[in-house]
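Hey everyone, long-time lurker, first post.

I ran two proteins through the pipeline my lab uses and got sequence/structure pairs for each. Pasting them in order. The first:
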Amino acid sequence: MLIQKMYRLRPPRWRAFCRCISLLNSESSHKLCKYFDISQSKAEFISLKQPYVNKLDESTLKGLIETVNDLGFTKDVIINDPTMFSIMPITLRFRYKVLEECGFQNITPKHLLTYLTIIKQKTIGYLKCSGELPNIDVEKRLASFMTQWPTSLNNLTFGDNHETTLYNLRLKILQRYLELVLDLSEDEFQRGIKTYPTIKHRPLQTINETLNLLQSVVMIPVKKIKANLYLVHVDPENLKRIIYKFRFIGGIDIKEVLRLHPKLATKKYDVMVEIRNILQAYGISDEAQRRCFDIYTLSPATIRERLEEAKSIPEFKAFLNHPRFLKMIHYKNTAMNRLKNLYDNRKQCLSLNVLSGSSAHYESFQNSPGDRLGKGKDLVFCITESLGNVYSPNQIWKMVKKHPFRFNVPLIQVKFVCQELSRTFDAQDIYENCPILLYPWSKIENMLNNFEEQNSRESLYNKELIDITRISKSQLLSLVVYLLEKKHYFTGNGVWDETVKIKC
């Protein structure tokens, strides 16, 4: 009663927080009941005793059960000691493998839970005296897992190791091995394990297999492995799946891609497959993937979210089928910040390079006077794609290059005008009058409406002696451009809005 009374006295925020915690525990306990066949009360007790259980999703729980089964245990060992929930499945596998390499027999769940104590605090002599470690030459055994280790160094090289720990001995062997295989100096080794501390607890056999794959199969130069020392702790089984099952990115052999972008070797195979499926579902071409291999370093959820957002951002949508579109997705946050800053500075002629290119290129555009696209590639792409890729970029360029202000019109305006004209005119009509795409739609629409009204129509073309009823749609568009430019003495200044001052 007292607790209930106190709860009623709590402010609404506290009660909402309590409800959220209760709901979270309920969901967590439901998952535990589902995968571990335990009662609801026991599941709730574990969720309260070990809060990190609430953070585990179903795939992690299934991976944990699968791991302990592969190691020869039942899932009951996790329930009996819920601390095991806090250890990632891959960590459990590596701990088991390290202890196995060191000579441990009959490895139990307790060994896995007290792994750090065994490895870092207990000496080899103590472990042998206590019977946990058989009376073997541990160093020679560890060295035997290195296939590239010289035979002459398989003997004891560091003196009596009874007073040292397994952690220090493994570190010495690993340092010596990397010194022989990668020509790694002591300073480089120390910096490497400080930057990537998980290397210290990788099984030596795993490291050996990984380096064999990287050097013999992928053919990554030693110099590049040294510069990217995180490659040493890549999972060899996952790397094999990437090499032999994933095989290609954008039509390029995955081994060649890994040589150029070694970071991809650290990605999970299943994640890379999911990313590929997402890109294909959104119609991203192989060429676009070849232009941005780094897209595979993002999470699938992030890529999907950014591709969806791109549909609602006109500046992104204008480049949706561009070969370098994925660069805008990969650097989306940077591109959005640049977009905002440039609009604040009244710059609207934005190219893909400006939004997602180098900082130097962006700063040059930002600091330069005026508002120009720069090169015409993006303009030509925009028009070509808007017309259904019926005409080649060279054909489009020949049609628009004569207009003096072709670089001063925002691409989103060009795309919008083309979309509006396509409702009435076909691609050939628009192609034959490509310069019309540079003019504001409000002016074009007003002119077309005037042609439909008898009084306005007579005032427009009586003096030109044109019979409007006998001209084609293509000629009609030509007439619109002619009349838009007539009052500007055909200087091209008709492309500016009435509210915008003429720019030269």
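...and the second, right after it:
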Amino acid sequence: MVSVGMTKMLRLLGNLIRGGSSPAKAVVGSRNYADFASEASFDVKKCDLHRLEEGPATTVVLTREDGLKYYRTMQLIRRMELKADQLYKQKIIRGFCHLYDGQEACCVGIEVAIKPTDHLITAYRSHGYTYTRGVSAKEILAELTGRRGGCAKGRGGSMHMYANNFYGGNGIVGAQVPLGAGIALACKYFEKDEICVTLYGDGAANQGQIFETYNMAMLWKLPCIFICENNRYGMGTSVERAAASTDYYKRGDYIPGLRVDGMDLLCVREATKFAADYCRSGKGPILMELQTYRYHGHSMSDPGVSYRTREEIQEVRSKSDPITMLKERMLNNNLSSIEELKEIDANVRHEVEEAAQFATTDPEPALDELAHNIYCNEAAFDVRGTNPWIKYKSAS
């Protein structure tokens, strides 16, 4: 004898099948949120420590809600960078373009561990951070293509993107590090419970201005997290050839440091939480080294395979990819289903395609707007152009 509940279920399945849906889709459609676990615990790699008695937690919790959010954000950054690659090869993006695919766990893990009111400054591989700081894919791609709808009105391009509490996107190697210390000084001066995350690459780690900044930050106990994104290659040179010491987390000497698995989002998240708490407590700066990897070359003009092998890149992709690692954790611990993640992938693809469409059709800024937005809330003034006879009017 068939129960009333079973009768309703059979009728529902019959209606779905007659409507053109397959039985498999009907089963997936009947699954609800109660079928998934709300959270799961994971062991992450222990951080190497310098001048610290204890470090970040090695057993961490991931909720289903957070996992889905992290997965979508990383996938969108990955898809956006691949679209930028395509637009650059079509000569729609001009100038410099440094892509971030492979390093998504760094920007997402950092962002979810700090507050929106905290500050962040980085180098020119900045598209991922621009997105996590609140700028849409549409505005980022439009900035890459030099359009009026870009986040810097089409005048910044790949290397100079900005948002609230996000200061770029800086083209001069290592120059953002003293700027980050200055932002941290402002946080302390105005007695705000805010910190500055200051990022640079392994290629910039030998810059003298970085060590000068370490010294001042420690003397003044600035609330600054210095983060070296070590993706193993500065332009076309491996870290072993460029640095006598590749222990970048120890480079601050008197500044405490952490070496973190930068391919594991959860590891980055916990380490950044630990570092942020350290800075907020008034102890001064802390240094983090994120061991990560970039799939593209240094920039779009670098094929990326003359100083490393394709096999090396493929090995990292197959064994350490940050998106794959998160996906497997969620699937293996019943935090999501493959169908749900595929739906996220489809939505991300659609969003990026729409953004690319906007970025290729939005008008370029007018020439007479070239000097706009130099200052905020300032009276208009004349700005000299490429010669003394050309002048542009500034406007806030």
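Reply from user beta_strand_b:
Welcome! Quick read of the second one: The chain has 13 helices and 13 strands. The CA atoms of residues 219 and 227 lie 19 Å apart.
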